[in-house]
Design goal:
alpha+beta, 4-stranded antiparallel beta sheet, 4 strands
Amino acid sequence: MPIVQFTRFKTDKSDEMAKIVRRAKTIFEKDGAEFLRLSSFHSGHWAGELLVTTRYSSWEVYGKVQEAVAKDPEFAQGRNIAVSIDL
């Protein structure tokens, strides 16, 4: 069952944030994440904010990646978790 993690950022330094996320992408994917993507909200309540979406193939892989990332204080952030429901 895939696990998808969303992290929303409010910043006026989008270019700096993109550089940080680019480095994070390398670390997260190296440790087992299927992908890490950066998006920008263009409408609605969060317009102008950034969204990082990370997908993991299982809870086991999620745990492995989180453990590896937790050792790097540069990437300590609050996160929400969404679990895919098979339909």
